[in-house]
Amino acid sequence: MSNAWSLYVIVLVVLNIGGCAWLLWWTARRRPGDPAPEETSHVWDGDITEYNKPLPRWWINMFYLTIAFSIGYLAWYPGFGNFPGLSGWTSAAEHDAEKARRDRQLEETFAVYAGRPLEQLAQDPQAMELGRSIFANTCAACHGSAATGAPGYPNLTDDVWNWGGAPERILETVLDGREGIMPPLGNVLDGMGGDVAITQTAAYVRALRSDDIEATLRNDYMAARGKKYFDGLCVACHGVDGKGNQELGAPDLTVRETLYPNTLDSIRTTIIEGRHGVMPAHRELLGETRSRLVAAYVWSLSNSGQADSPPGRQ
């Protein structure tokens, strides 16, 4: 908080406290010429009279004590702008102390799983229950409670991995995050053939997912024409055969399980505007051991056979 805002807060607090004290003092006094409490002249039904009696002295004194308490409270705790308070207490320090205490409890709970290989953790029912809980609290917002993903968010239950599905690769993704960028190519293709070139490239990309690419290209003129644009612009990341590059996070374009809808319009949008996918890093949020547990759970979703097998028979 800047000094100006701090002064503003202090002035407001002082004015409010002073205003309360003045109002209490002013309204508690009786002045010469004031009517007696019984002489308000407010009478109803002949015998119901409104009085104007002051509050009892003990009640007024309680209000004064409340004002005195508020002054002491604001002096002891940081209530006057940037003034730290005589006690030195801060909500941030209390939060940090509580967080440290909770972190120590978590470390004790998860210590038994520290450093264990993901394949071993995937065979431990209790570890998987913890991993499932961590996933529900941390990952389900993007990947869904069933981990089947959504447009732009990968399905974690299949065997399609843009960055690799090996246990340690998944752990790297959880710990340090990933950033996948598909650059926009609309302007480039505009200079090579305009909107037709974009559509032809999209048609070729869609054809890569067919069971027989050669037959598809023979029967689809647009897809066949799009191959030259793909070879000129896309192979650097996705490879000559379109199977992608897990080191770059470039997806395999030959699989049916796509990150975005497998429609011509969706593919055109990707080519024209590009895509930017970010998986945030969780190293600071979860720490090494909890990241290992959730990574083991994610790995088990697409490797249930190996996760269920006894050690040494994977």
Automatic annotation (TrEMBL):
Known pathway: Energy metabolism; oxidative phosphorylation
Domain Cytochrome c, by residue range, is 126-209, 221-302
Q: Read off the Gene3D superfamilies from this record.
A: 6.10.280.130, Cytochrome c-like domain
Q: Enumerate the PROSITE patterns for this protein.
A: CYTC
Which cofactor names does the annotation list? Answer: heme c
Answer yes or no on keyword Iron.
yes
Q: Which GO terms describe its cellular component?
A: plasma membrane
- Residue sites binding heme c 2 per the record: M182, C234, C237, H238
Any GO BP: proton transmembrane transport
Note how many cofactor molecules are bound and how: Binds 2 heme C groups per subunit.
Where along the chain is heme c 1 bound?
C139, C142, H143, M279
For this UniProt record, give its keywords in alphabetical order, as a comma-separated list: Cell inner membrane, Cell membrane, Electron transport, Heme, Hydrogen ion transport, Ion transport, Iron, Membrane, Metal-binding, Oxidoreductase, Repeat, Respiratory chain, Transmembrane, Transmembrane helix, Transport
- Transmembrane stretches in the record are 6-25, 58-77
Q: Where in the cell is it found?
A: Cell inner membrane
Q: Which InterPro entries match?
A: CcoP_N, CcoP_N_sf, Cyt_c-like_dom, Cyt_c-like_dom_sf, Cyt_c_oxidase_cbb3_su3, Cytochrome_c_Oxidase_Subunit
The entry lists its GO molecular-function terms as: electron transfer activity; heme binding; metal ion binding; oxidoreductase activity
Specify whether Heme is a keyword of the entry. Answer: yes
- What is said about its interaction partners and assembly? Component of the cbb3-type cytochrome c oxidase.
Family membership: Belongs to the CcoP / FixP family.
Q: What is this protein's function per UniProt?
A: C-type cytochrome. Part of the cbb3-type cytochrome c oxidase complex.
Matching PANTHER family: CBB3-TYPE CYTOCHROME C OXIDASE SUBUNIT FIXP
Q: What is this protein called?
A: Cbb3-type cytochrome c oxidase subunit
From which organism does this entry originate? Luteimonas wenzhouensis
